[in-house]
## 1
Amino acid sequence: MPLRVRRCLMASGLALTAFALIAIAWTQFGIVRDFDQWVAERLNSAAQSAQWIPDSFLAITYFGSARFLIGLSIVVLGCLLILRRWRLAIAVCGTQLISVALIDHAKLLFERARPRFNGFFVREGGYSFPSGHALGSMVAYGMLAYLWMILVSQPRVRRCGVLIFCILIVLIGGSRPILGV
């Protein structure tokens, strides 16, 4: 297995471990929940202070919406099928299906209510954790970063693409608490 593939798998494992540790800390320690609430209130307050902030993050969060991610996944899957990369196509389908199931089941497991300021910029229903936008983006754009790593041969182009996908994941994930959902 090439070194860059092993690195991608290691990064994925570390991200999953970090997610599990944060989730456990949030469920077990009130101080973590209090800190989380404090951060959410500060972010929402900052977003209310300038109209460009929610406007910008509403645009960014669109790229993590189910509608966009489903379309993106179909395009990526189509490209992989055209290139006859059957295993990668199966991997894309599998990761997307697993992420949908994970989001639904994890929301029921944690039963974390939406913030009290949900609806100020955008209104979302159901539980808030894990964020479907954030987790779906991490899976979709993480898979795109992985595909980029193994399909692009030029090191500079490869690093630039992966960096762009990582920035997009962070921005989409960050957009959710900023928008108060």
## 2
Amino acid sequence: MKVESAKKNGAAHSEPAIENAVLDRYRKGAQQKAESLCCPVSYEARFLQVIPDEILEKDYGCGDPSRFVKSGDTVLDLGSGGGKIAYIAAQLVGAQGHVIGVDFNPAMLALARKYKQQIAASIGFDVVDFRRGKIQDLSLDLDLLDRELALHPVRSADDFQWLSETCERLRRAQPLIPSESVDIVLSNCVLNLVNDADKRQLLSEIFRVAKVGGRIAISDIVSDEPAPEELKRDSELWSGCISGAFEEEAFLRAFEDAGFHGIELAKRDEKPWRVVNGIEFRAVTVTAYKGKQGPCFERNQAVIYKGPFKQVMDDDGHVLKRGVREAVCDKTFKLYSREPYASHFYHVEPNNEVPLSDAMPFDCKRSKRRDPRETKGREYTLTTEESSCCGPDGCE
């Protein structure tokens, strides 16, 4: 199929045109099932039993990011739509967790909120909260803004200035999602619906709201080649998760540029969902973590990369060679002791711990190899009798 978008739509794509097309298509999708909105996904049946059919049949996703949710998490579901992922996540986080769904579309929010008490009664606790906002602006609570506008309608240029000041006040004083408040950010096929000009801000907002040590699980549609302008001018293709898709390499790079680390392509569909003018569009799921920022201190720690590759490079440019005792700062040592790295390394602690309060800045120009005497101690002269080489799993 060849798409003649320029003839169909004429003018170049604009933010209001895209936003209106997305709002209208998903408003209709909330009222009547739309077969062409994103691709079919299988979810664990046990989590679907408490979710009404009206939500299930009007769910438009391309993956299942909920499988990365843990008990007790505070979860943010971007573009939560009818609430399916949010209600699955609620069952995973349990009574001690919290799930926040954010969506811009009033019709989808109404559908999600319609069954909130019914589902809470079925699972035995109420931990889900749906809020109205744009996923590229997670500071502005649009429900709060609507209340302000009801008291002070905008009718003049002076009112417009008041509106701008009010938005900033609400962002500061009553943010929709506070900074560093979320354990995991989920998204299911909505990042591609955001205008290209807002995508950098979108990733920045995702990074802002995640806790230090928090993580993300993002399912979306990506393309194997950049989408040309003729596709981007087609509002139907944009609202259908096509024209606004990230190119697949750029998708991963966007999370890296935003400051995330441990970025992994956790799932990539072998077959494309759609092919348009020779460009393949397929579903992927990406996971990543927040927390590599901060000062570096020398505490005489080392890591040994297990393999199987001869060497690897991390998101900070550290090259780690297989089997080599690599000198790392305290921050990196801690990062490598947690997921997704922990299983790939042996962690070498010094015999004499250096208190963080006494630690000097780590010299990034020093030799990458950690001399064993740096961890054992220069005066280490211990001699021992032979000992058992048995490990926790017994002797071979």
## 3
Amino acid sequence: MSRAVRFDRYGGIDVLHVADVDPPSPGPGQVQVQVKAAGINPGETSIREGLYAERWPATFPSGEGSDFAGVVGAVGDGVTAPAAGAEVIGWTDQRASHAEQVVVPAEQVVPKPPQVPWEVAGGLYVAGGTAVGVVTAIAPHEGDTVVVSGAAGGVGVLAVQLARRAGAVVIGVASAANADWLTGHGIRPVAYGDGLADRLQAAAPAGIDAWIDLYGGGYVDLAVSLGVPVERIVTIIDFAAAERTGARAVFGADTPGATALTQLAELIATGALDVPVRTFPLDQVQDAYAELEKRHTRGKIVLVT
């Protein structure tokens, strides 16, 4: 038998449990991966709570999870690479990565550089792909001033670094507790809360060229009010504001795949990108989501098997 996270109905974290399941076997063109680490993401909370039931309904009992990293245990017919024993980073579209084993098409895994820790690799696909997607959407230039709201979250820690690597001056909106981490990575920290507009204007007296909203809660409207061009405002969460203002919304389906994942892994391997991670054992999946749903964790939360 193998173990996997399951939920049998929509609800809060209390519906999550770890169940014994039959080990998945790879079919033609597929690989079976022994999961070492698997990231958790806010969208999974919304799915579990039934908020996306009309668009992406669950079939019960449902698994969950997209990100993973692990060791290839077996390959199906027609697979020439990767071979059994290879260390890989990947993703599944079947809500299945929060488990000891997962089966995916061979093209949905890429090699894991040995310098990338398992826990970092396991949470890379969703947050990393989204970070690449939002930074690409605003197309930062040398000398641009870019604001990132939610700058210390799972997507934020990567987005601020990628925008900075593109030559932008990056202002990170986050809690005061994250100021030192942001400063240490070349980001100008600005604390959220009352008076934020004044603090941003003081931090960017020449104006703001682009805005990446990773948090919601009115940041798109704030960006518009500060004169940021709407075509250079992007959000991953406030879709209503994007539709109302003309800002751009980036959905998970818009984010890059294997090529971006490989490039991000190589940057992490060389020390060019830093990803803070907090880990929980698979059996503590409820605790992991309780922490995620506080929306105050720096970087990624990852389940380890």
